[in-house]
Design a protein that fits this description.
The complex is a heterodimer of chains A (277) and B (924). Chain A has 277 residues and is mainly beta. Chain A contains two helices and 19 strands. Chain A has two domains: 117 residues, Immunoglobulin-like (Sandwich), CATH 2.60.40.640; 141 residues, Immunoglobulin-like (Sandwich). Chain A is 4% helix and 56% strand. Chain B is built from 45 helices and four strands. Chain B is elongated. The N and C termini of chain B lie far apart (103 Å).
Chain lengths: 277, 924
């Protein structure tokens, strides 16, 4: 249920042919140039999916008195068919947006008046209790993949854990990390929050990862054997609960990035599952 | 108790308990016995300085490059958002190199100002950017000697920021709370939507509820309000700040900025601060550089103490975390950095002190003994713990340290030579012992142990800094013997290569401490090395300062006059030093001060009944202090006093010997007075000394004084300088002359000179003196002369000097004398009438009237009105006074009434007749 007031104000009285409200909700998908090529990306944007589109008549044709008139309204949000009311989400390749439009039709001589505003949909918290899923990790030169010359790597041992990879979106991601030993001096340790958007359709799918946020948790050569906290607040507007539908997916991952002197970059990846409780 | 509580619920519960407890005993606000940060600030800025060039790098935009490499495909939106955060002037990158320390300080001050400006002009984003950029500077440890000062400067900015944010959110609460009713659900929803919409575009804090400036003095209210009655707008704004800060990429700025607005957690939830502090404490662990990290902890403790002093656990945790990272100081990373910057370990380690002192101070504030003991034990366990030891000594209660002095000395001795400088450790210990007393039995041993080390210090600066502190302890608990030893040792160390030249402030402070404890100057000067110690002050200005201090203490504490030769010799020497510093450029104030001190000394010298000794002391003093006029004046007074004392002892009958002595005193004055400059000083002293001479039956000497005074009168200038302003001198002259006349009454005439020789002489001088035009002073003086002459013509004078025959007994009312007297009177009166005539002009009529009346009164009081001439004169004067309607009727009426009343007395019948001849003018 969407509720509010429409405010009409004018110096003189206003003649009109009726006022109506329209709620519209769409999912816009776009294929990234990287995964399908420039032209296809340009032409082949996937058709937007409409989630909701309904209109109600608020005021019959007539006249508003001069000054300020407030018209309260309540608008039920009924989805089309068997579609789901997704949370508002603004990504790069996936956009879920809801708008409320107010139209005032007027006589032939005057232009119709339109006002649009976006409103935010947060899905109702899920009832089920979140089961924590802690993950422990150990990083040494031996555990790394993608290494050309393992022998050249300085020796190190980094241990740690994430308290849970199932995260409540309003709660921070927490954990601990200990540099047990490292031959090379540490430059920085960072948490990189990455969003993975997948647009899929019959022809195949495109998967794109974008960094949302990068948080440094250690700066300089940290003390060995002393745990450094892992702590990251999920940015409000760039995250949403993990979303998986037939046509598209929005998922999140966190990378723990360790930079060693000189020029060594070690990354450890953890997929996350975000939800709203 | 000190283990980090991993379970937030448990933590919340404990803090909840402590909160309740605190509500009861209300110890949540730090008391005045907690030394505030503000008092440390200046000291740190003054101590940690550098001559090397500094640079400020406000990293704008360089962030983009870094981000670009690490990120595969960053959305445009994200990128712009990051850029906005990092730049505060679009796309600008400022790197200011080669700044001197002063430039640097100025730049930081400018940033502080631009922060305030940005805030005032509602550019909140820019304000945040400035703060972020500034706190980034704290991760830069180049020119490491300056780091503590940099910390001070930058945290000032952070404090400003924290205050601004808090006040704004607070004002939103107050305003909406009092003005608006509780918003409806719909309204709230709308406000929220609005906010989200805003947030989509960029970070704009909601429109300000008030243009700030709401008075926030009401701390009491701020303290008592609970998060439940904070309105949604305020909460939302507050959350917005925290989200914004949580997304700052770099650790150090994120830490500092979040810590700076720690207090704002109050708006969100009751347990906000108590959850946030431990988290921030843990966050510091991520800072690799131990120096940067310890300062971050210091800042956290500082904010914590301010906002929630009851949350001791975080303070303790900071301390123990620090101990865990302590070993890093000796790690390779730090060592390499030191080599690179060319900084030695003994000068690197003291850089930690301000931060550690602060942390320790926060923890030890009102802390139980057990905690302090535990902290000490933990410090002991670490290798090379001198640094910790020093902070323990600087921060813990002095009593705590003092009772364990021997332990501390033991620990200090065990410390590694190459690390933290030992003299600093002993200095810290000494500071504690100056404040609190160690156990009686340990006292001597402490001194011996400490001094054994101190005396071995090679660098005179290190030595004197240490010795200065320990002198206090020595003076407090020991006798002059030990003090003497200490002073001797200081002399021994400071004399080679004239090392004392660089340490005057410390040496001065040693002297001050010694004289503060030895009020008995005979004991003080019997400390053999005291005077040799003074000889080290070879720069004149310092020397004089020290002398002044000593004299001040002497004047303050010396109760009894003294003749102790040791004191006299020493103090004469000291006073001579002060006196000899006077030159043409010395300021008046300075001279006055010195004279005051020397006079204080002179007044305290007494040889009892040995008057001759006393006089010879004055003679000596005169030769020593001839440049300070007030001292000479004091000496003359003292000698006069001595003469009068002699007279008192002899009960007025001088023997031959005492008469000679008294004459010597008189002679002293007579030859001293001419060397003075102040003309009235001289006049008054002549008069005064003449009176003393007269009282001691030295008639010719008295005559000489009076003659000298008379011959000085023509020299009186018209204007004299009083307290820096030029004033006419006539009123002073009048005052002096009146005084003089009263003395002249009793001065007997000299047998070889004519009758009333002195009076005539003085009249001549007055006649010749160039008086101010339009002034009646001369006439007033003549009127006074008339009084004198009238008094002289009486058979017996009103007063006498014991054992001196005045003119009344010399002439015994001789008619020739009276005739002389009358002649003089007539001359004077003629002068007066002459003057009255000249006042017949329009503008002078008023003066004529009042002078006439005053002359009339004089005649009435002193004249014999049975004489017809005088009677007629008075009637004329009466008319004159009234002639032009200038007279005050009421005065005239009163005068007439008085005459009528007098006429009732026996022998005054003639006044009745006079009264009839004095008409009162009616008003027309």
């Amino acid at each position: 249920m969407l509720s509010g007031v429409v405010v009409v104000s004018g110096k003189d009285s206003v003649q009109h042919q009726g006022v109506s409200l329209t709620v519209e909700g769409t999912v816009n998908l776009q294929l990234s140039a990287k995964s399908v090529g420039v032209f296809e990306a340009f032409y082949n944007s996937v058709k937007p999916i409409q989630i909701i589109n309904s209109t109600i008549e608020m005021v019959k044709p007539g006249k508003f008195p001069s000054g300020r008139t407030e018209i309260p309204f309540e608008f039920p949000l009924h989805v089309k068919g068997n579609r789901v009311l997704y949370e508002t989400y603004h990504g790069v390749f996936v956009n879920i947006q809801y708008t409320l439009r107010c139209d005032m039709r007027r006589s032939l001589l005057a232009k119709d008046l339109t006002k649009t505003c976006e409103f935010i949909v947060h899905s109702a918290p899920q009832k089920r209790k979140l089961t924590p899923s802690p993950v422990a990790f150990t990083v040494t030169p031996e555990t790394l993949q993608n290494v050309k010359e393992r022998a050249l790597l300085p020796k190190f041992l980094i241990r740690g854990h994430l308290n849970s990879t199932n995260c409540v979106i309003t709660q921070p991601l927490t954990g601990e990390l200990v540099v047990e030993s490292s031959e090379a001096a540490i430059k920085s340790i960072e948490l990189q929050l990455v969003r993975v958007e997948t647009c899929g359709c019959a022809e195949g799918y495109a998967r794109d990862a974008t960094e949302i946020q990068n948080i440094q948790i250690a700066d300089g050569d940290v003390c060995r054997g002393l745990s450094v906290p892992i702590y990251m607040v999920f940015p409000r507007l760039f995250t949403c609960p993990t979303l998986e539908t037939t046509n598209f997916k929005v998922e999140f991952e966190v990378n723990i990035v360790v930079l060693l002197h000189p020029e060594h970059l070690i990354t450890e990846n953890f997929p996350l599952k975000l939800c709203r409780v | 108790m000190f283990a980090a509580s991993a379970d937030p619920a448990a933590l919340a519960a404990t803090t909840e308990n402590s909160r309740k407890k605190r509500d009861r005993d209300d110890n949540s606000i730090v008391g005045s016995d907690f030394e505030p940060w503000a008092s440390k600030r200046g000291e740190i800025l003054a101590r940690y300085t550098t001559t090397e060039k500094l640079s400020i790098n406000l990293f704008m935009g360089s962030e983009k490059g870094k981000a670009g490499t690490a990120i595969s495909a960053m959305s445009e939106k994200v990128r712009t958002r990051l850029e906005e955060l990092d730049d505060f002037e679009e796309g600008s990158q400022k790197e200011l190199l080669n700044l001197t320390q002063q430039d640097y300080v100025n730049r930081i001050e400018e940033l502080n100002q631009s922060l305030k400006d940005a805030w005032a002009s509602d550019q909140k984003v820019k304000a945040l950017k400035i703060v972020i950029q500034c706190s980034k500077l704290l991760s830069d440890t180049s020119v490491i000697q300056f780091y503590p000062s940099k910390f001070v400067l930058i945290t000032d900015i952070l404090d400003t920021f924290g205050k601004l944010v808090y006040e704004r959110i607070f004002s939103m609460c107050v305003d909406n709370h009092s003005i608006l009713p509780v918003p409806s659900a719909a309204e709230r929803k709308r406000a929220y939507l609005y906010k989200l919409e805003q947030a989509h575009s960029t970070f704009i804090p909601p429109p300000s509820a008030s243009s700030s400036g709401t008075s926030l003095e009401d701390e009491e209210m701020a303290y008592h309000f609970s998060p439940e009655n904070v309105n949604d707008t305020a909460k939302e704004t507050c959350l917005n700040w925290f989200f914004k800060i949580a997304s700052i990429r770099e650790l150090i700025p994120r830490f500092y900025v979040e810590a700076s607005i720690l207090k704002c957690n109050k708006f969100l939830s009751k347990t906000g601060i108590s959850e946030c502090l431990p988290r921030l404490t843990c966050m510091v662990r991520g800072i690799g550089d131990p120096l940067v990290s310890v300062y971050a902890r210091a800042y956290l403790c500082r904010v914590g103490m301010e906002v929630a002093p009851h949350l001791k656990e975080s303070l303790d945790k900071n301390f123990f975390d620090f101990l865990l990272t302590f070993k890093q100081i000796h790690g390779d990373t730090v060592q390499n950095q030191l080599v690179l910057q060319g900084v030695e370990l003994p000068s690197y380690l003291p850089l930690y002190s301000p931060a550690m002192d602060w942390i320790f101070q926060c923890i030890s504030y009102h802390a139980p003994e057990a905690l302090l003991t535990e902290m000490m034990e933990r410090c002991k366990k670490l290798a090379n713990n001198a640094l910790l030891l020093n902070s323990v000594m600087s921060a813990f209660r002095a009593e705590f340290i003092a009772t364990r002095s021997m332990d501390f000395i033991g620990m200090i001795k065990e410390c590694d030579e190459s690390g933290f400088p030992k003299h600093l450790l002993f200095r810290s210990l000494g500071l504690n012992l100056a404040l609190a007393n160690p156990p009686e039995s340990d006292r001597l041993q402490i001194l011996n142990e400490a001094w054994k080390v101190i005396t071995k210090l090679k660098n005179p600066q290190d030595y004197i800094n240490c010795a200065e502190v320990w002198v206090e302890y020595t003076c407090k608990h020991f006798t002059k013997r030990e003090v003497n030893t200490v002073l001797a040792d200081v002399i021994k160390h400071m004399t080679p290569d004239r090392a004392f030249e660089d340490s005057y402030p410390q040496l001065q402070s040693i002297i001050k401490k010694v004289i503060a404890h030895f009020h008995d100057f005979s004991v003080l000067f019997s400390v053999e090395k005291f005077l040799p110690f003074l000889d080290m002050f070879q720069k004149e200005s310092v020397r004089v300062e020290v002398c002044k201090c000593i004299m001040e203490v002497f004047i303050k504490h010396q109760q009894e006059p003294t003749k102790d030769p040791v004191i006299l010799n020493a103090l004469l020497h000291i006073c001579k030093t002060m006196h000899d510093s006077v030159n043409a450029l010395t300021l008046e104030d300075e001279k006055r001060m010195l004279a005051y001190l020397i006079n204080g000394f002179i007044k305290m010298v007494s040889f009892g009944r040995d008057f001759e000794q006393q006089l010879s002391f004055y003679v000596e003093a005169r030769s020593m202090f001839c440049n300070l006029e007030p001292v000479l004046v004091q000496l003359i007074h003292s000698v006069n006093r001595l003469a009068m004392e002699t007279r008192k002892v002899m009960k007025g009958n001088h023997s031959r010997k005492t008469a000679a002595f008294v004459r010597a005193c008189v002679a002293y004055c007579f030859i001293t007075i001419p060397s003075l400059v102040g003309i009235f000083t001289r006049l008054n002293l002549y008069l005064h000394s003449g009176q003393v001479a007269l009282a001691n039956q030295c008639l010719s000497q008295a005559d000489a004084f009076f003659k000298a005074a008379i011959s000085l009168v023509p020299e009186v200038p018209k204007m004299i300088n009083i307290d820096g302003k030029m004033r006419p001198s006539e009123s002073f002259l009048l005052e002096f002359l009146c005084n003089f006349f009263s003395t002249l009454l009793i001065v007997p005439d000299h047998p070889e000179h004519g009758v009333l020789f002195l009076v005539r002489e003085l009249l001549n001088v007055i006649q010749d003196y160039t008086w101010e035009d339009n002034s009646d002073e001369k006439i007033r003086i003549y009127t006074c002369v008339l009084h004198l002459l009238s008094a002289m013509s009486q058979e017996t004078y009103l007063y006498h000097v014991d054992k001196v025959d005045s003119n009344d007994s010399l002439y015994g009312g001789d008619s020739k004398f009276l005739a002389e007297n009358n002649k003089l009177c007539e001359t004077v009166m003629a002068q007066i009438l002459e003057h009255l005539k000249t006042l017949a002009k329009d503008e002078a009529l008023k003066r004529q009237s009042s002078l006439g009346l005053s002359f009339f009164n004089s005649i009435l009081a002193h004249g014999d009105l049975r004489s017809n001439r005088l009677n007629q004169l008075s009637v004329n004067l009466w008319h004159l006074a009234q002639r032009h309607g200038c007279a005050d009727t009421r005065t005239m009426v009163k005068t007439l009434e008085y005459i009528k009343k007098r006429s009732k007395h026996p022998d005054m019948g003639h006044l009745t007749e006079l009264a009839l001849r004095l008409p009162l003018q009616t008003r027309t």
